[in-house]
Structure formats: C-alpha cells, structure tokens
Design a protein that fits this description.
Layout lengths: L2 H14 L3 E6 L2 E6 L4 H8 L25 E5 L4 E4 L15 E2 L4 E7 L2 E6 L4 E6 L6 E2 L4 E6 L1
Antiparallel strand pairs: 1-2, 3-10, 4-6, 4-9, 5-8, 6-7, 8-10
Length: about 150
C-alpha cells in the first residue's frame, strides 16, 4: 500500500464512525481501531458515588485550561505503536524538560513493521509527554507538547 492509499483509508475510517476496521491488499494489512473518546475516558475514570447521605459538595471543577499559545503539539502522522526509545534497553530519545531542536527525533512509531522516526517541528523545551511507551496511537493524536 502506498502512503496515499493509507491516507485515503484513514479518511474513510474517520468519516465512517466505525470502531474498528481492517483492510488487506495482498500481503499488506492495515488494522485501525478507535480508542475511547476523551468523554468516554473521563466518564470511566469518574468513580461511582456511594448512596450514603449527600455530604457538602465542593465547587464544580474548573474548565480545562485554554491551550498555551507558546506550546506546540507534536501529533502522530500515522497509526501505529509509540516507542520512546530506539530499543528496549536504550534511554528515551527525549524526556520532559529536555531542550530539542527542529528535526531532532522525539520517538518512533511502528506501523506495518516499519519504524518511523517522529521529529520535532520546532525548537523548544519538551513540556509534556502525552503517550505511554508501547501504546497504540491514532492518526493526529498528540504525542508531545513543546514550549517555545
């Protein structure tokens, strides 16, 4: 499959709303699976309240902070598995607080048995690492926040 074909399949997948899709052409196979949405994830993380008498409630949680204009999100250009180091025993490419230059490798995403290096688009400081090592990532999912 070519990159263009994969991009077309991704567009169809995102537009369809299906939860999982697998496409096979010859020896090439592409499996796409949606993770829980942010809302579903947040709802599953909220513990059930006991049926005991209501205690005084705390104020409602603050709204999520607006995105910092000085931070740029590095997003996954492909679907695959995220790795933060070149091999299991090696140190990670970058850690939170590290200074990075544009073009510096931040991580690897394995897709269809190919290791794709993901590079920083800007120079700055790694403000946040948003994905756990070895976790599947989706197209467009935020991987890092880099502060200029």
């Amino acid at each position: 499959m070519t990159i263009k074909e994969i991009e077309e399949i991704l567009a169809i997948f995102h537009a369809s709303g299906v939860h999982e899709m697998e496409v096979q052409r010859g020896e090439n196979r592409l499996r796409l699976r949606r993770g829980p949405t942010e809302r579903e994830w947040m709802e599953s993380a909220v513990p059930a309240t006991p049926s005991a008498p209501a205690a005084p409630t705390s104020p409602p949680p603050a709204k999520p902070a607006a995105p910092d204009p000085n931070e740029t999100l590095v997003k996954s250009p492909i679907v695959g598995t995220y790795y933060d180091c070149p091999k299991p025993e090696a140190p990670p490419f970058v850690k939170v607080g590290d200074r990075v230059e544009a073009g510096q490798v931040l991580c690897i995403i394995e897709s269809m048995k190919l290791m794709n290096e993901i590079e920083a688009e800007i120079s700055g400081v790694v403000a946040a690492k948003l994905v756990e090592n070895g976790r599947p990532v989706e197209y467009g999912e935020a991987l890092f926040a880099i502060r200029r």
